[in-house]
Amino acid sequence: MSQHTDFAKSHMDKCIEALKANFARVRSGRANPHILDPIKVDYYGQPTPITQLAGVKVPEASMLVVEPWDKTALKAIEKAIEASDLGITPSNDGVSIRLPFPRPTEERRRELAKECSKLAEDARVAVRNVRRDANGKIERDEELPEDAQTREKKAVQKLTDSYVAQIEDLLKTKTAEIMEI
């Protein structure tokens, strides 16, 4: 592999990782601890991720249990979850916080599937932008003869096609998970 295809591959890998992270945050009716990743708790004046303050367990498919290591942080965690846009009402039993995930309606599942399609399209656009950047680098590389540039561009295109196929597979899997009753 040349430096140009290495550049493209590493950046396309980042696009796939970002898509996976975005898909993990989409609420599908199944309890997923990653949905709490973006929520920060005001802990002694510092915005701190919930995962650094508590253990997050999934005792059943539609329930998350947050157990803080420092019990004084319980109220702050509960407040941060309520203030977030998760749309889940936490219940505090004095030791842990339970987050019940209600089953989404058919209409809501369709909306979530559309949201995932948009995330996948954004990832495809990002992969194509990487391809464009890599091809630009190839064209500006004056040490490469014309036939080598053509080979490099074909390799980058083949790489692009494989990453777009990966995105399609991820979207299919996530859509099936969302539409599952």
Automatic annotation (TrEMBL):
In the record, the note on similarity to other proteins reads: Belongs to the RRF family.
**InterPro entries given for it?**
Ribosome_recyc_fac, Ribosome_recyc_fac_dom, RRF_sf
Q: Which residues form the Ribosome recycling factor domain?
A: 19-179
Recorded source organism is: Paratractidigestivibacter faecalis
What NCBIfam families does the database record attribute to this sequence? Answer: frr
Q: Out of the domains of life, which is the source?
A: Bacteria
What function does this protein fulfil? Answer: Responsible for the release of ribosomes from messenger RNA at the termination of protein biosynthesis. May increase the efficiency of translation by recycling ribosomes from one round of translation to another.
**Know the name of this protein?**
Ribosome-recycling factor
The UniProt keyword set, sorted, is: Cytoplasm, Protein biosynthesis
Where is it located? Cytoplasm
What's the short name of a Pfam family annotated to this entry? Answer: RRF
